[in-house]
Automatic annotation (TrEMBL):
Residues annotated as transmembrane: 108-127, 178-200
Protein name per its UniProtKB record: PEX12
Domain of life assignment: Eukaryota
Pathway: Protein modification; protein ubiquitination
Keywords: Membrane, Metal-binding, Peroxisome, Protein transport, Transmembrane, Transmembrane helix, Transport, Zinc, Zinc-finger
The species this protein was found in: Mytilus coruscus
């Protein structure tokens, strides 16, 4: 399980983000703060609460797939750099040369990657850009605050759709609902887990800082008079 931890986490994150993008037009974190995504196209109807399929797929790509690839590249870079520093890639083969070229070039790629995020954040802070992240821009969306009708629309559609479906489509709809329930369980577990970790941190901090009832008070340091110091110095001399 630990060997495929990243893949399992990515699959669960994919289920979670796909559910929230379909149901709330925003990622899990964006929905938590009352934010949704709308398409940047001017011909997109503002009353349509659902994301276009192209924006949804690009959002999943930027929220899940690209961070997973970047994480794997970071791990690969650290592993190859360690092998090169320890002399385990000293062979003069084509594959070793490619690995060494990757280790030499990747820090600059990482610098451009992180620098682009910093530029977008600074531009957004000073009102020069509508996007706080290049991923949001690549997704073809903008972030806006949710309205009351956005919160009510998710509860009206499921009952109306179920009555019009055939038997095969109802089975597919049931499978989709099971996946959505899995996503809701994950989101609830994340919220409860974060609260539990914060509670443990508060408990541990307060327990360490609280004085013990059985502990004796720390005495003040002894005061040495000037005459005693002179006598002691005279004794050692």
């Amino acid at each position: 399980m630990l060997r495929f931890y990243d893949e399992i986490y990515t699959i669960l994150d994919l289920i979670l983000q796909n559910y929230y993008l379909h149901s709330h037009s925003g990622s899990f974190a964006e929905n938590f703060y009352g934010i949704k995504r709308i398409a940047c196209q001017k011909d997109q109807k503002q009353e349509d609460t659902k994301l276009p399929r192209s924006c949804l797929l690009k959002s999943i790509l930027c929220l899940v797939i690209l961070p997973y690839i970047k994480h794997k590249l970071d791990f690969m870079f650290e592993e190859l750099r360690h092998k090169i520093n320890t002399g385990r890639l000293s062979q003069n083969t084509l594959l070793c040369k490619l690995y060494k070229a990757f280790v030499a070039v990747y820090p600059y790629v990482h610098m451009v990657w992180e620098g682009s995020f910093l530029v977008y954040l600074i531009s957004y802070m000073f009102g020069k850009s509508k996007w706080h992240s290049p991923f949001v821009r690549l997704s073809g969306v903008e972030l806006v605050h949710q309205q009351e009708e956005d919160l009510q629309s998710t509860h009206v559609q499921s009952s109306e759709v179920w009555q019009d479906l055939s038997l095969n489509n109802k089975l597919l709809f049931a499978c989709k609902t099971a996946v959505n329930l899995t996503a809701v369980t994950l989101s609830t577990g994340l919220s409860v887990g974060v609260f539990f970790l914060q509670f443990l941190d508060w408990w541990y901090t307060s327990d360490n800082n609280a004085p013990s009832l059985l502990a004796m008070p720390t005495p003040d340091p002894p005061k040495v008079s000037g005459i005693l110091v002179i006598i002691m110095l005279h004794h050692y001399w």
